[in-house]
User: Which sequence fits this backbone?
């Protein structure tokens, strides 16, 4: 069983002016602040940031380790919405990259036969959740030409897990609309810094690193991996770069010379964050050693300098929240 997941809509949904950012240890809120209470100045954006820690038992383990939320998350949502003034009728939600699973498949005419794509993804993903496979929510988008048809990128979440996240907010009267993963939300904020929307986005937090590749602002590749150390993280970034783009001659190199070709992991435009994460620092050091341009910082101060918050402007949750909020109408 599967159904299209309108949450996890990958930049397509209408966005309310409130966002929650969920992790395994914290829930954060970002919403528009009354300009009369915030920073002044033409073009200034005033936002309010709040957060609360989650208790250790906020999640139980669901199918294949998927996080199923329980009463402790609902209680934290209630407290945080009260902190925010108690008026949050609808919100977008950002979840950690490892809350979902991503798969690329090649199909024929996905836009003409969306039900077939749903079924293929549900079948392929279902096997990874054990037998019998649990009910799944499926979302996908076309990612260009594949080796055997049209490539689509699919995101799958066990229904039990996704419904539990929604229920935790519904108990406080909050309807969850769009749901995006952390890297996709952060990417929305950072794409404008990449020339014509082409290049890599590296978003790393703790032991997880995700690399997304965009062409003309369209997501073409997405890879999340556990990276227990900076060397592993660097290898993952380089592997993704070499996969998505061909190697090209080093600038200034003569045709036919034996100068080593510059790899895509050195030359591709890249934006990376949060600053200080081992994966980001390792990639910055690598590009510097290879003579490539440094990754651009994926921070609010660099990308939205007119944004003003009550606190923690460059907290990663703020970057993710304003990324998902940038789709609001």
Assistant:
């Amino acid at each position: 069983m599967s159904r299209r997941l309108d949450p996890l809509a990958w930049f397509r949904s209408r966005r309310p002016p409130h966002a929650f950012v969920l992790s395994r240890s914290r829930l954060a809120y970002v919403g528009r602040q009354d300009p009369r209470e915030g920073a002044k100045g033409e073009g200034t954006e005033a936002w309010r940031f709040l957060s609360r820690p989650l208790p250790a038992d906020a999640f139980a383990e669901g199918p294949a380790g998927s996080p199923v939320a329980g009463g402790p998350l609902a209680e934290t949502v209630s407290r945080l919405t009260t902190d925010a003034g108690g008026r949050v009728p609808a919100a977008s939600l950002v979840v950690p990259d490892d809350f979902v699973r991503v798969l690329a498949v090649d199909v024929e005419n996905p836009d003409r036969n969306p039900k077939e794509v749903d079924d293929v993804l549900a079948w392929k993903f279902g096997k990874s959740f054990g037998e019998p496979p649990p009910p799944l929510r499926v979302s996908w988008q076309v990612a260009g030409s594949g080796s055997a048809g049209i490539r689509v990128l699919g995101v799958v979440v066990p229904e039990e897990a996704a419904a539990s996240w929604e229920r935790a907010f519904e108990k406080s009267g909050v309807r969850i609309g769009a749901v995006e993963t952390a890297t996709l939300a952060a990417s929305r904020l950072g794409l404008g810094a990449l020339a014509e929307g082409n290049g890599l986005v590296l978003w790393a937090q703790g032991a997880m690193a995700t690399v997304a590749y965009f062409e003309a602002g369209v997501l073409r590749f997405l890879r999340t991996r556990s990276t227990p150390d900076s060397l592993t993280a660097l290898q993952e970034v380089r592997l993704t770069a070499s996969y998505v783009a061909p190697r090209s001659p080093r600038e200034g190199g003569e045709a036919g010379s034996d100068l080593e070709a510059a790899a895509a992991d050195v030359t591709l435009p890249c934006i990376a964050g949060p600053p200080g994460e081992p994966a980001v620092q390792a990639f910055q050091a690598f590009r510097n050693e290879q003579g490539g341009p440094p990754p651009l910082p994926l921070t609010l101060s660099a990308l939205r300098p007119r944004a003003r918050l009550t606190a923690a402007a460059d907290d990663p949750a703020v970057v993710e929240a304003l990324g998902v909020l940038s789709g609001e109408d």
About this structure: The domain at 194-250+258-292 is CATH 3.30.420 (Nucleotidyltransferase; domain 5). The first helix runs from residue 71 to 83. The first strand starts at residue 2 and ends at 4.
